[in-house]
């Protein structure tokens, strides 16, 4: 929660990301924070204080909230991959493609879509609940749980991650071709380096999510020990959303130095506000 809150506050102040990429980063960081919030403020306290509450109707809604934020995060990463691909392939036209209106509408649509996906979980027949004996979430045994778990969660996530991988591959190949092309002006080289840095940031984030999917749906099933399962499922789920925020921090100096710069500015304002300058004849001109 602390890592992603830092990124959220920094994104509100820094301008280095641009409007479209900044808004998309804000979207998946908010989704990361939402996942961390549900685990920290609901799942963990319920497990410690009253484990039986996980079996109540309200207790089962924690899984529903987590699926919502997971979908929003994955779709935000897909939108990031689309944005990076457009920037590299169509650097001149990208500002007319990813306008402020298009960006905002797209982000709103992906969140509405994520909310719509978890509507079936309001039914007690479609369960994604926390099992205290294994410390992990499981889909229920009903037909509805099978449908939402297999198609709207597993296959959907795999399709989105594979699409992200395909877009990232195309973007990477284009970057390789651009690096072999003729030299360009210094100012354009600086802009290209920044866009390439943003691409590798998005690539690392997509790789982290792919690793988490493999961990949750494949590696965890190779072990019977509940603590090992907990490590490859619940712990991996929490960790990937922390790493997602850390990647943004590591790839961007402005994000890393956000709090330090804020303190510097507040110190300067405090010191200058206490100084009463006396005008001299030269200061009037």
Radius of gyration, CA atoms, in whole angstroms: 23 Å
Quick one: CATH superfamily? Rhodopsin 7-helix transmembrane proteins
N-to-C span: 52 Å
Unreliable segments (pLDDT under 50, ≥5 consecutive)?
A: 265-285
H/E order of the elements? HHHHHEEHHHHH
Spatially, the strands of the biggest sheet line up as: 1-2
Transmembrane segments: 30-49, 69-90, 102-122, 154-177, 198-218, 230-251
Pfam families: 7TM_GPCR_Srx
Protein name: 7TM GPCR serpentine receptor class x (Srx) domain-containing protein
Domain 7TM GPCR serpentine receptor class x (Srx): 2-252
Task: Describe the structure in brief.
With 285 residues, the chain is mostly helical. Helices cover 74% and strands 3% of the residues.
Describe the structure.
It is built from ten helices and two strands, in the order αααααββααααα. The protein is 74% helix and 3% strand. The chain has a two-stranded antiparallel sheet. The protein has one domain (1-260): Rhodopsin 7-helix transmembrane proteins (Rhopdopsin 7-helix transmembrane proteins, Up-down Bundle). The protein is elongated and about 60 Å long. The chain has helices spanning 2-13, 19-49, 61-89, 94-97, 100-117, 143-180, 186-217, 226-251, 253-256, 258-273, and strands at 128-131, 136-139. The longest helix has 38 residues, at 143-180. Helix 1 packs antiparallel against helix 2 and helix 3 packs antiparallel against helix 7 (186-217). It has 285 residues and is mainly α. The chain crosses the membrane at residues 30-49, 69-90, 102-122, 154-177, 198-218, 230-251. Residues 2-252 form the 7TM GPCR serpentine receptor class x (Srx) domain. Keywords: Membrane, Transmembrane, Transmembrane helix.
